Structures are given as C-alpha cells and as structure tokens.
Amino acid sequence: MFSVVSTSLLTLFSLCGISTNCPSVCTCIGNQTDCSDLNQLASMDSILNQLPYNTTFLTLSTNNFPAVEPGTFSNLSSLLHLDLSRNILSTLHPSSFSQLNKLDFLDLSENLLVELPVNLFSELRSLTELVLRDNRLKELNPGQFKGLMELKRLDLSSNSLCCLPMYLLDGLQNLVWLSLVGNKLRTLQRTSLEPATDLQHILLEGNPWNCSCKLIPLKHWLEWTLYRGGHVDSVNCSSPTNLYGKDLRNIPMEMFRHCYPLYLETRSSSFAEGHPVTAGSPGDCIRQRYRPVSVRRAAATVVVAGVVCGVVCVLMVVTATYGCIYAMLAAHEQQQLMHGNSQQQQPLIVVKEPEQDEKEDLVATIAKEEEALECAEWMAFPPEVSV
Ligand SMILES: *[C@@H]1O[C@H](CO)[C@@H](O)[C@H](O)[C@H]1NC(C)=O
Ligand SMILES: *[C@@H]1O[C@H](CO)[C@@H](O)[C@H](O)[C@H]1NC(C)=O
Ligand SMILES: *[C@@H]1O[C@H](CO)[C@@H](O)[C@H](O)[C@H]1NC(C)=O
Question: Which of 13, 54, 75 for a ligand 1 pocket mutation test, highest count of atoms within 8 Å of Cβ?
C-alpha cells in the first residue's frame, strides 16, 4: 500500500516537472531547467549553485541579470543549451563562458550589450547557433567568432553595426544562415562574406544601403548566391537618391555603367605608376585576398608580356647602338679616304673632272654623317622605353 502511494507521488512529481535536483525557483521538465522570469528573487550564482553539474538545458531569460562574472558556468560543462535572453546584460568578461566546450546553442538576445570581449566565444568549440539579436552592438572585433568552426547560424539582427570587419567570418565554413537585419550597414564587402562558403541564407533588410559603385561586388555575390539556390531577402537602397527604395538585386547593371570608367582608370593608373598595391587601402586588399584564378592568370600574362617586351626593347637598343657605331666608323673612314684622295693622289692625276661616282660618294658620306649625328643624339636622349 505504502509503496503504491510513494510510486504515485513520484509519478505526480515527475509529471509536474519537479525533481530533487531542481533549484526551488526554477521549473525542471525532463532535462530542461527553466529559471526564467524570476522577478529578482534570486541571484544568478545562487541558482547555478543549486543546479546538478550534468544540467544540459538551461534558461535564465527574462530576469534582470546585469552581468556574467568570469567562470560563472565553470561547474556546468555539460551544458548544451544556454538562454540568457531578455536580461540587462551589459558586461561580459572574456571568461564568462569558459569551460562550456559542449555548448551547442547560446542566446544573448534582448540585452544591452554594446561591445563584446575579443575572446568571449573562443572556447565554445561546439557552438552551432549564436543569437546576438537586439543588443546595442556598434562594432565587432575581426576575430570575434574565431574558432567557432561548427557555427551554422549567426543572428546579429537589430543592433547598431555600421560595418562588418573584413575577416569576421573567416573560418566559419559551416555557416549556413546569417542575419544582419536592422543594423546601420551602408556597405558590405563581398570578401567579408566569401569565407563562409556554405552560406545559404543571408538576411540584409532594414539597413541604409548606399548603392554606390562600391556595392557592385555585393550585388554580384548576391546574384551568384541566388543562382546557387540560396536565399537572400531584399537589399533596399537608401542612397543615392535616384535608387532610393530600389532593391539592389533588381537594379540593372546599366544603372552602374558610370562606375566602369572609374574602375578601369583607378586600376590602370596604379599599374602604370608601378606602385605595388598598397596594403592599407581596404579595396585593394580585398582584391588581393580572393583573386579568382583567371585574374591571377591575367596578371601572370601581363608580367610575362612585360618581360618579353623588355627583352625585345633591350635587343633593339643594342642593335641600334651597334648600327650607330658602325655608321660613325664607316663615315669616318670614308672621310679619311676622301682626304687621302684629295691630298696624295691629286698630283698623280692629270686634269680630271670630278667624277660622277665621287659626287655620289660625297653625298653618301654626308648622309652617313647626318645619320651618325642623328644616332648619337638618339643615344643621348633615347625615347622613353615603356613596358
Ligand atoms: C544527472 O545526474 C543524475 C544523478 O546524479 C541523474 O539522475 C540524471 O538523470 C542526470 N541528468 C542528465 C540530464 O544526464
Ligand atoms: C563549483 O563547484 C565547487 C565545488 O562544489 C564550488 O566550490 C564552486 O564554488 C563552484 N563554482 C561555481 C562558479 O559555482
Ligand atoms: C555613398 O558612397 C559614396 C561612395 O563611397 C560616397 O561618396 C557617398 O557619400 C555615400 N553616401 C552616403 C549617404 O553615405
């Protein structure tokens, strides 16, 4: 009889989700520990101290937790799912989430985060989803998500991001879903997105896109993503005024025709001046990073053509020099011969009219002399050798 009662009581308890391991203020159903909406009844530490170490699923949302102290979760290394949304978190420490190397899902949405420590997520090697929606993030460190190799979904919507660092998504080969909705992005470099090779869904709505020439690479990338069967929401332009409200994806390239002379000009001028592409300017930096093979081949062709041209030019100069020297020597010899003729052979020759071929010789000599002079000048001031 007693055993039947205790069994039914246990069943009742488990049905109501009450277990002996559950903190008094929380609700535990199965392996899910829900400590949300506590009305400031408990501090985060006092709750966590009551949790069994093997807790896997923890919700701490809708409280007024202002911070996560270093090592707060260090005894909960079994956690797979952690929800800290709807708090007033404004301070996180680099080791706030250390030890959570099994964590799969982390929700930090609807807090007051303005910036994130650089290494905040560096130990979350198993993380597949990170939600940072609805915070006040203005910028992110280039290495913010470094090491999150398993990350599949990244939600950065409804923040104040003005720009995305170029290397932000480097190493996130498994990322399939990215939201940047509702930020302050005016421009986005194609090369920031390219490292995420598996990206299939990208959401860019609600940003003040500046559809200038600089956004053309993004347009091409979006078109390519759509072509591969990916999903892209609308990218509505805020500026320039003639494109206001237009979706970047649907604007015909004809509208960007004015961009091309500019583009070609800047490229060829940097080639002609022989400057190495300056590493500092972001635009060029990008081009160097993910240059397609065809472009690299084109560059190689230019170099080879340059070398061949150079060799040909050097040969031409050598030949011309040789020709000039020969012409000068020949002219000199001719002159000496003429002098010799006129001084030594005159007495021997009886009255003789200046012969036709002698005249011709004279003309030839003069011509050769002129040629030599010209050559000498040419050698002194060779026309610019441009390759
Ligand atoms: C946690 O450990 C307790 C025993 O210490 C066990 O009864 C419980 O099932 C474990 N929970 C999970 C989710 O592994
Ligand atoms: C982790 O557990 C140890 C031993 O029970 C305890 O002394 C320590 O305070 C706990 N740490 C945290 C952050 O709760
Ligand atoms: C848009 O980009 C162009 C070119 O970078 C710049 O000159 C212009 O000022 C930008 N307009 C706005 C509204 O940011």
Answer: 54
Distance CA 267, CA 85 (A): 48
Q: Give the residue from 84, 166, 191 showing the smallest Cα distance to 132.
A: 84
Mean of pLDDT values over 220-238: 95
What distance in angstroms lies between residue 186's CA and the mean position of ligand 3's atoms? 9
- Of the candidates 56, 59, 47, the residue with the CA atom closest to the CA atom of residue 22: 47
Local confidence band at 281 (pLDDT 50, 70, 90 cut-offs): very low
**How far, in Å, from the CA of 97 to the mean position of ligand 2?**
15
212 lines ligand 2 (CB under 6 A): no
For residues 341 and 339, what is the distance between their CA atoms, to the nearest angstrom? 5
| Ligand with minimal distance to 52 CA | 1
SS (H, E, C) the chain: CHHHHHHHHHHHHHHCCCCCCCCCCCEEECCEEECCCCCCCCCHHHHHHHCCCCCCEEECCCCCCCEECCCCCCCCCCCCEEECCCCCCCEECCCCCCCCCCCCEEECCCCCCCCCCCCCCCCCCCCCEEECCCCCCCCCCCCCCCCCCCCCEEECCCCCCCCCCCCCCCCCCCCCEEECCCCCCCCCCHHHHCCCCCCCEEECCCCCEECCHHHHHHHHHHHHHHHCCCEECCCEEEECHHHCCCEHHHCCHHHHCCHHHHHHHHHHHHHHCCCCCCCCCHHHHHHHHCCCHHHHHHHHHHHHHHHHHHHHHHHHHHHHHHHHHHHHHHHHHHHHHHHHHHHHCCCCCCCCCCCHHHHHHHHHHHHHHHHHHHHHHHHHCCCCCCC
363, 334 contact by CB (below 8 A)? no
Which residue in the block uniquely carries the two structure tokens 């011309």?
Answer: 320
Question: How far, in Å, from the CA of 263 to the mean position of ligand 3?
Answer: 16
* Percentage with pLDDT > 90 across the chain: 51
CA-closest candidate to residue 200, choices 171, 216, 218, 224: 224
pLDDT interval class at 39 (50, 70, 90): confident
> Does the pTM of the predicted model rise above 0.85?
no
| Residue 153 alpha carbon to ligand 1 centre in Å | 29
Q: How far apart are CA 12 and CA 5, in angstroms?
A: 10
